[in-house]
Design a protein that fits this description.
The chain has about 650 residues and is an alpha/beta fold. The chain is built from 23 helices and 28 strands. The longest helix has 22 residues. The N and C termini lie far apart (about 65 Å).
Length: about 650
C-alpha cells in the first residue's frame, strides 16, 4: 500500500508543484496550520510543505493494509446523479493511486444521470446485485436499508458521505469522511486535491453534474462555499463554461416521467430510513408547476399503501417539489394516518393539509429538514404513531362489509391481515390471546349515541387499552335482492344503530315495515342476499351491496348528512403519548363532578362522557371519559388516576376520514 502511494507521488510531482497553491487540507486532513505559514517564504519551502501535506493525506490509506481483489465503489439504491457521479469519481481516484477499483450501481439510473453520463461520454456503471464478501466503498449513504443487498457481509473499507451517521458498521478500520456539504462529489473533489491529483475531463463532467444536481444549481440551502469552488474548478476541466445551461438540460431530463408507471416515478429518487423502530421511506418527485404537483399528489396517494407492503415499510412519504426561479413549494403526501400524525407532530401549524397532501411554502430539503424532523418525532416516542405497527393483524366486528371494517382499513392501510369476528368480545379475545395485534370496535354514533354493549366491553377489559381512534362518515343505504322495489319491502333488517339512524327516513317512506335487529349491518346484507326474498331489505354500508350482490334501493337513508361513528383501536399494550386520553371512573353520580373539575384543572378538555351502571347499586356507575390536550404527560395522567376508582385506559391520536 505504502509503495503504491509513494510511487504515485513521484509520478505526479510535477502536477503537485503546478497546483501547489491550490492544494488544501480539508476537515480531518493533516498539517493545515503548516500549509498557510510563511506566505512570503521561498517557493521551495511551499513545495516541500505541499509534498508533506500530500504524503500525510495519503497515509490514511496505509492503515487499511493490503487489499486483495477489486474494490467496488457504490452509492445507494434508487441511484441519483450524486451517488453515481461520486461512485465513478472515487473509483477513478483509487485507480490513479494504483488500486483495482470499479464503480457499480445498485439499480437502474434515472434519466438525469443518463444525460450526464452521455455528456461525459461514459457508459452507465454495471449493477452489483450482491455485495457479500466484496471489498466495498460506500458513497452518498451509510444505511443498510439504502445499500446493495449483502452489505452486512461485505468488507467495507471506506464511507464517503454528506448525510447523517447511518447504521452501517464494520469491525475493522476504515476511512470515514462525512462532511456537511451540498454533495458527496464535493467531498471527493476535496480528496483529489488533498492527494495532489486531478480528475480527467470525463470524470470532472460527472462530478460537475452530481454537484449541480444535488444543490439545485447551487441554489439550495445545503450549498456551501466548497460546492461553489468545486463547480468553478470542475467546469474548467470539463470544458463546460455555461453551467446554468448544463443544469437546465439536466433538469429537463429529471422532470421527464414519460413512459414511467406511478410506482417507477415514486422510486425514481427514493430512500429508506429507520427511526424508533419504524421503517419509513421518502420518494422525491420534481415537477415544474403546482397544477402538475397536485395531480401527482393524487396519483401518489393511490399507490402508497401498496408500495408500503411491497417494500416492507411502516410508512412512506411522497415529497413532490416545485423548485425553480421564484417557485419553491412542496406537496408531501403521507401513506396513511400514522404518517400524517408524524408530519403534524413534526411541523405543527406549518403542515397545511389540503385533503391529499401537506403543503409547505417554502419547500424543504429531504436531507436537512424532512428526514431529521421525521426521525426526531419517531425517536422521541412523543407521537403515538411510533407505537402503532402498520403491518399488523387486526380483528374487527365483521363480517366483511361493515363500517368497522372500513375504519380498520382506513387506520391500518398496510395491515398484514384483517380478521372479521361475529362479536366485539370475539374481536377483543383475538388481541388477548395474541392472534391479533389490534381490535377495532365501534363506540359512539352521531345519531344513535353510545353503542352500549361495546362500551361495556371496554369497561370490562382492564388490560386492554385504547391506542387509536377513527371517525368514519356514515352513509346508510337501503338494499335488496335483484328485482326488488321499495313497494315490495315488508321487513328491514340492520344493526340496532342502522335501524335507529334510518328510522326517520323509514317512517316517511316505509311506514308499515317490520324491523329486525342483526349483529351488524353487513350481517343484515348477507342475510338478505341468502334469503332471496324481495320483501326483505337491509340498511348497511354502500359497499355491502356490491359485496353481497344486492341492489341499492335508496341512498343516504340516515337522519343526518353529518352522521358519523367513532371507533376505538384497542391493544394489550398502552401508548405512552398522544393528544387524547381515555379514563374509566367507577364512582357515584355525586363524585363525577369532582373528577371533571380536576380534569379541567389539570389541562384536559372533555371530548365525550358515557355512563353505564356498574351493577352494584342504584346511582353507581362506570364512566368512560375521553379527553384531549396538546401535551399529555405522565404527571397529568397520575393526577387523575390518583382519584379512587379512576384508571387510565390509553393515550392515542385521532384519525378522521372525510367524505370525498
Amino acid at each position: 500500500m505504502k509503495e503504491k502511494a509513494e510511487k504515485h507521488l513521484t509520478i505526479n510531482k510535477k502536477q503537485i508543484i503546478c497546483t501547489l497553491l491550490a492544494v488544501i487540507v480539508a476537515s480531518g486532513a493533516f498539517g493545515t496550520g503548516g500549509f498557510f505559514v510563511g506566505k512570503n517564504d521561498a517557493q521551495s519551502e511551499y513545495r516541500a510543505e505541499s509534498e508533506l501535506n500530500v504524503k500525510l493525506n495519503l497515509s490514511d490509506l496505509d492503515g487499511l493494509g493490503e487489499i486483495k481483489g477489486t474494490i467496488y465503489v457504490t452509492g445507494h439504491k434508487s441511484p441519483d446523479s450524486d451517488t453515481v457521479g461520486s461512485s465513478i469519481a472515487y473509483a477513478e481516484l483509487l485507480r490513479q493511486l494504483g488500486y483495482d477499483a470499479k464503480a457499480v450501481v445498485a439499480e437502474k439510473v434515472n434519466r438525469e444521470t443518463e444525460y450526464i453520463l452521455q455528456t461525459a461520454g461514459m457508459d452507465v456503471p454495471e449493477i452489483l446485485e450482491d455485495a457479500s464478501e466484496c471489498n466495498m466503498v460506500l458513497v452518498d449513504h451509510s444505511e443498510y436499508t439504502q445499500a446493495i443487498n449483502g452489505m452486512e457481509n461485505a468488507n467495507i473499507i471506506s464511507i464517503i458521505d454528506h448525510h447523517n451517521d447511518g447504521a452501517v458498521t464494520t469491525g475493522s478500520q476504515l476511512i470515514y469522511d462525512a462532511r456537511p456539504l451540498g454533495s458527496t462529489a464535493t467531498i471527493i473533489w476535496l480528496r483529489y486535491r488533498n492527494y495532489g491529483l486531478e480528475p480527467d475531463k470525463q470524470t470532472a463532467t460527472v462530478m460537475l453534474g452530481a454537484i449541480l444536481s444535488d444543490t439545485s444549481d447551487l441554489k439550495s440551502e445545503t450549498t456551501t462555499f466548497a460546492d461553489r469552488e468545486a463547480v468553478k474548478t470542475l467546469s474548467v476541466i470539463a470544458d463546460i463554461s455555461d453551467t446554468d445551461t448544463f443544469y437546465q438540460e439536466m433538469f429537463k431530463k429529471k422532470l421527464s416521467y414519460d413512459g414511467m408507471t406511478d410506482e417507477e416515478i415514486f422510486l425514481n429518487d427514493y430512500k429508506e430510513y429507520e427511526a424508533g423502530g419504524i421503517k419509513y421511506s421518502i420518494g422525491v418527485i420534481e415537477l415544474y408547476d403546482e397544477e402538475s404537483a397536485k395531480a401527482m399528489a393524487k396519483r401518489m396517494k393511490d399507490i402508497l399503501p401498496d408500495m408500503l407492503k411491497s417494500a416492507g415499510m411502516d410508512m412512506a412519504f411522497a415529497q413532490i417539489s416545485v423548485y425553480h426561479d421564484d417557485m419553491d413549494v412542496n406537496y408531501i403526501v403521507p401513506s396513511d394516518e400514522a404518517a400524517s400524525r408524524v408530519l403534524e407532530n413534526a411541523f405543527g401549524k406549518k403542515a397545511a393539509f389540503d385533503g391529499l397532501s401537506y403543503v409547505f411554502r417554502p419547500g424543504m430539503s429531504r436531507k436537512k429538514v424532512l428526514v431529521p424532523a421525521v426521525t426526531e418525532v419517531l425517536e422521541s416516542k412523543e407521537n403515538s404513531a411510533s407505537e402503532i405497527k402498520a403491518d399488523a393483524a387486526v380483528s374487527y366486528l365483521g363480517p366483511e362489509g361493515t363500517y368497522t371494517e372500513e375504519a380498520a382499513k382506513f387506520f391500518f392501510k398496510a395491515a398484514n391481515s384483517l380478521i372479521p369476528k361475529k362479536t366485539v368480545d370475539e374481536a377483543i379475545e383475538e388481541v388477548k390471546n395474541g392472534s391479533a395485534d389490534y381490535a377495532v370496535i365501534p363506540q359512539e354514533n352521531t345519531i344513535g349515541g353510545a353503542v352500549t354493549n361495546y362500551v361495556d366491553a371496554l369497561i370490562r377489559e382492564k388490560n386492554i387499552y385504547v391506542v387509536g381512534e377513527v371517525i368514519i362518515p356514515i352513509n346508510q343505504t337501503l338494499m335488496g335482492i335483484e328485482g326488488a322495489a321499495l313497494a315490495d319491502i315488508k321487513t328491514v333488517c340492520s344493526h340496532a344503530q342502522g335501524l335507529t339512524q334510518s328510522k326517520t327516513w323509514r317512517t316517511e317512506n316505509l311506514p308499515d315495515v317490520e324491523e329486525r335487529e342483526m349483529d351488524s349491518t353487513a350481517a343484515a346484507a348477507s342475510f338478505v342476499a341468502e334469503s332471496k326474498d324481495k320483501s326483505i331489505a337491509a340498511v348497511a354500508a354502500p359497499g355491502a351491496a356490491e359485496l353481497y350482490g344486492l341492489t341499492v334501493l335508496a341512498e343516504n337513508v340516515q337522519i343526518s348528512d353529518t352522521n358519523k361513528t367513532r371507533f376505538y383501536v384497542l391493544s394489550n399494550t398502552k401508548n405512552e403519548f398522544g393528544k387524547r386520553a381515555v379514563f374509566i371512573a367507577n364512582c357515584g353520580a355525586d363524585q363525577i363532578d369532582d373528577i371533571i373539575v380536576e380534569l379541567n384543572n389539570t389541562g384536559f378538555e372533555m371530548v365525550a362522557l358515557h355512563d353505564r351502571p356498574d351493577g352494584t347499586k342504584l346511582g353507581s356507575y362506570n364512566y368512560v371519559i375521553e379527553t384531549k390536550a396538546d401535551n399529555i404527560s405522565s404527571d397529568m395522567i397520575d393526577k387523575i388516576t390518583a382519584y379512587s376508582g379512576v384508571r387510565f385506559a390509553g393515550c392515542f391520536d385521532l384519525s378522521e376520514k372525510t367524505n370525498n
